[in-house]
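Q: What changes when magnesium ion is included in the input?
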Amino acid sequence: MRDSLEKEIPHIKFKDVSFSYPGKKENLIFKCNFSIKEPGFWMVVGKNGSGKSTLLKLINGIIQPKNGVIESNANIGMVFQNPDHQILMPNCRSELLININQNISKNEVNKKIEYVLDQVGLTGFEKRPVHTLSGGQKQRLSIACVLISDRNFILLDEPTALLDQTSQLKVLKTIKNLVSDKKRPLSALWITHRYEELAYADAVSELKNGFLSSWQEPSKFQNN
Ligand SMILES: Nc1ncnc2c1ncn2[C@@H]1O[C@H](COP(=O)(O)OP(=O)(O)OP(=O)(O)O)[C@@H](O)[C@H]1O
Ligand SMILES: [Mg+2]
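A: The predicted holo structure follows.
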């Protein structure tokens, strides 16, 4: 399992990227420049309607820029705000199975399932029906699905917005642990409007008036 994850470092680069939705004159994203070149916990904070979800859609290619260039070698997986919009199957094992995209032996499949559930703090949850999971457990199952499909870049769009504080912390710590695993280059770009989450990041940026500020350490950012 580990060997198959030891791959090249994922990176994403925006060069002067602008975007507006059809029929809108004003650019929602305007001459936006940033790059993510190292594995780690990257957070973008922004107000409602500032374009955070649009930025993620540009990164994963759901929409195309009007101007500018997006370069990426990342193998991207998504975690959305509401896990009920993402999880399709009745139990944890079947949900993980639909996310394995390799032709591997049953033994390997079982090992992978055990490994990723362990990675997100859901050891022993394989047979659990999804409807018996808490919101935070569902979010961690969604993260396990990204891991089991061998992605190396996770985009998380306000993944804790519907969670209580205990579950919020567990999801934050899950990502923090995953990106800290030196043997496996993994980047997470976490979108939030909750300032208290920024302390967990390696670097923080604000989306405002269509572009991202430069990356800063969380402590410096909060002092702004
Ligand atoms: N498909 C679309 N067509 C037209 N306008 C859109 C579309 N999707 C989003 N918008 C508009 O673009 C703006 C930014 O939306 P976006 O969802 O990216 O913001 P956000 O920062 O994620 O907001 P929130 O914090 O509420 O999730 C909003 O004014 C929204 O109405
Ligand atoms: Mg949004």
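Observations recorded in class: Strands lie at 12-19, 29-36, 40-45, 67-72, 76-79, 153-157, 187-192, 203-208, 211-212.
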